[in-house]
């Protein structure tokens, strides 16, 4: 990823929740784009993969590469959601499913421990090969497949079947889903809750305006 200036993360908890939630919906958006077209915007992709392959960032803003625009695709989706505009229903379904799966993960201590071990190994891989190397992407996809995808509740990805069977595509899709889980956990850690999406839309909208 090209270096971007570090902007200090907002102190406002709602703004931090908005950034984390934007990561969830950016992951959902990229899953949809990969499944339908096989292509994604490089900056959006790199932001998610770098965030997920580094479970111990030095600061909150370091998680998303130091600038809110690295999460612009997710922020735009979130803005449509809180503004009651028409957003891609498939992306919304993926996003809310990721939040649901994150809650299931949080309540499964054994799986959390297993995932933590896997992420430590992936961090070592990323430091050796680079975060977006296909070995790292494959490991992220494998981590998702061996943990989150074992829940009875699963995300069924819709798209072009021929594209979804091409080399590295299943791994890239699962890596995006793993990124969605990473940002969903961050959202919860910052105080994000599902009910707030319903009852605190105005506060979330103000936070999104401040991030423009």
Automatic annotation (TrEMBL):
The keyword Cell membrane applies. NCBIfam families: PRK00218.1-2. It is found in: Cytoplasm; Cell membrane. GO terms for cellular component: cytoplasm; plasma membrane. It is a peripheral membrane protein. Pfam families: DUF489. PANTHER family: HIGH FREQUENCY LYSOGENIZATION PROTEIN HFLD (PTHR38100:SF1). Belongs to the HflD family. Keywords: Cell membrane, Cytoplasm, Membrane. The keyword Transmembrane helix does not apply. This is High frequency lysogenization protein HflD homolog. The lineage of its organism: Bacteria, Pseudomonadati, Pseudomonadota, Gammaproteobacteria, Oceanospirillales.
């Amino acid at each position: 990823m090209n270096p971007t200036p570090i902007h200090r993360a907002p102190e406002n908890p709602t703004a931090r929740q908005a950034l984390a939630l934007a990561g969830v919906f950016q992951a959902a958006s990229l899953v949809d784009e990969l499944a339908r077209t096989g292509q994604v915007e490089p900056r959006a992709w790199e932001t998610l993969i770098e965030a997920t392959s580094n479970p111990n960032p030095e600061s909150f803003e370091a998680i998303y590469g130091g600038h809110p625009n690295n999460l612009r695709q997710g922020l735009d989706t979130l803005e449509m959601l809180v503004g009651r505009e028409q957003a891609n229903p498939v992306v919304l379904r993926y996003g809310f499913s990721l939040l649901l799966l994150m809650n299931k993960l949080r309540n499964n201590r054994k799986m959390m421990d297993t995932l933590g071990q896997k992420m430590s190994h992936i961090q070592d891989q990323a430091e050796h090969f680079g975060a977006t190397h296909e070995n790292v992407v494959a490991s992220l996809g494998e981590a998702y497949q061996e943990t989150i995808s074992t829940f009875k509740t699963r995300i069924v990805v819709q798209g072009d079947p021929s594209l979804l069977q091409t080399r590295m595509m299943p791994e890239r899709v699962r890596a995006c889903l793993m990124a969605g889980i990473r940002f969903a956990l961050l959202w919860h850690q910052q105080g994000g809750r599902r009910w707030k999406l319903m009852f605190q839309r105005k506060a979330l909208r103000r936070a999104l305006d401040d991030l423009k």
